[in-house]
């Protein structure tokens, strides 16, 4: 059978095959120009990412810069801690042979025996309870906080007498709410010491000024003031002040040494 005979007998079949082949070529061209480009782009991206993964992520210069930054952060963290954290005097710590409870009662008795006569001679009214709870604390962690608060109260009362305030007639100590919670106190723990005091304007202003002058307060560090509200007193010539001070403790402040980087 020659070609002419084959063509005459199968030209419809050959036409269909040829048309299908043309459609295939067209479809391949369309796919290559669309999906093919996306595949090539994805392959190129994969190749680039593999190159990045095989190369070091940080250079020596990056490490040196991180070390310098860490050293600066260590310095700042230590400065902040020294400036903010409350440091109790030895008489208001658990140092020594006394039990925590005995140490607390000894410190409380000493402050009362010293402050109350001084206030009386200066005609200053003082809350004789010194802000301490009716029932003495028994848990060691609470005793430590009350001792620190008592230390701050002693410093504040001595300063009040020096500047000539008329009264510090309400004192209240509030331990950080996180101390008994499951969540804990967090990084910064505040024991609040709330004072209500009064006196003439000059004495009140001098008291506030001195609380922020480390050289003018016992212990050599400024008081941490959480809030301060003033109002005119019903007593002639007096200003009333509601003052909230803080005994600050810092917890879980972890700074990585540069050698560990």
Structure description:
The protein has helices at residues 3-33, 35-54, 60-84, 100-121, 140-163, 201-211; strands spanning 125-126, 167-174, 188-199, 224-232, 239-250. The protein has 261 residues and is of the alpha+beta class. It has two domains: 3-54; 79-250, Ribosomal protein S6/Translation elongation factor EF1B (Alpha-Beta Plaits, 2-Layer Sandwich). Strands 1-2-3-5-4 form a five-stranded mixed β-sheet. Strand 1, helix 5 and strand 2 form a beta-alpha-beta unit. The longest helix is centred in the N-terminal third of the chain and has 31 residues, at 3-33. The model has no long low-confidence stretch (mean pLDDT 83).
SSE blueprint:
Blueprint: H1 3-33, H2 35-54, H3 60-84, H4 100-121, E1 125-126, H5 140-163, E2 167-174, E3 188-199, H6 201-211, E4 224-232, E5 239-250
Parallel strand pairs: 1-2
Antiparallel strand pairs: 2-3, 3-5, 4-5
Helix pairs in contact: 4-5, 5-6
Q: Strand share of the residues?
A: 15-25%
Ranges where pLDDT stays below 50 over 5 or more residues in a row are none
- SSE class: alpha+beta
H-E string: HHHHEHEEHEE
Q: Note the total helix count.
A: 6
Architecture of the largest domain in CATH?
2-Layer Sandwich
CATH homologous superfamily label of the largest domain: Ribosomal protein S6/Translation elongation factor EF1B
**What's the average pLDDT?**
83
Q: Remind me, CATH topology of the largest domain?
A: Alpha-Beta Plaits
3D shape:
elongated
Strand order of the largest sheet: 1-2-3-5-4
Number of strands: 5
Biggest sheet overview: 5 strands, mixed
Distance between the termini: 86 Å
State the name of the first-level CATH class of the largest domain. Alpha Beta
CA gyration radius, whole angstroms:
39 Å
Whole-number total of structural domains: 2
User: Considering DSSP H and I runs of 4 or more, what fraction of the residues is helical?
Assistant: 40-55%
């Amino acid at each position: 059978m020659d070609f002419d005979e084959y063509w005459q007998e199968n030209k419809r079949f050959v036409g269909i095959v040829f048309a299908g082949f043309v459609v295939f070529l067209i479809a391949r061209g369309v796919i290559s120009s669309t999906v093919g480009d996306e595949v090539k782009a994805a392959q190129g991206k994969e190749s680039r990412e593999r190159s990045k993964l095989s190369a070091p992520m940080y250079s020596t210069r990056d490490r040196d810069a991180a070390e310098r930054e860490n050293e600066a952060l260590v310095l700042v963290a230590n400065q902040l801690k020294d400036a903010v954290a409350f440091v109790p005097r030895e008489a208001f710590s658990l140092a020594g042979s006394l039990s925590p409870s005995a140490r607390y009662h000894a410190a409380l008795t000493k402050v009362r025996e010293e402050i109350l006569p001084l206030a009386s001679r200066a005609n200053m009214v003082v809350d004789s309870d010194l802000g301490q709870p009716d029932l003495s604390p028994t848990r060691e962690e609470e005793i430590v906080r009350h001792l620190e608060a008592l230390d701050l109260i002693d410093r504040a009362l001595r300063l009040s007498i020096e500047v000539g305030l008329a009264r510090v007639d309400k004192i209240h100590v509030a331990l950080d709410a996180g101390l008994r919670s499951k969540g804990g106190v967090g990084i910064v723990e505040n024991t609040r010491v709330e004072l209500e005091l009064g006196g003439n304007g000059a004495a009140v202003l001098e008291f506030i000024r001195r609380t922020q002058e480390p050289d003018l307060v016992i212990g050599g560090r400024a008081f941490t003031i959480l809030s301060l509200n003033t109002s005119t007193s019903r007593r002639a010539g007096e200003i009333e002040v509601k003052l909230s001070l803080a005994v600050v403790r810092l917890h879980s402040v972890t700074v990585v040494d540069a050698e560990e980087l």
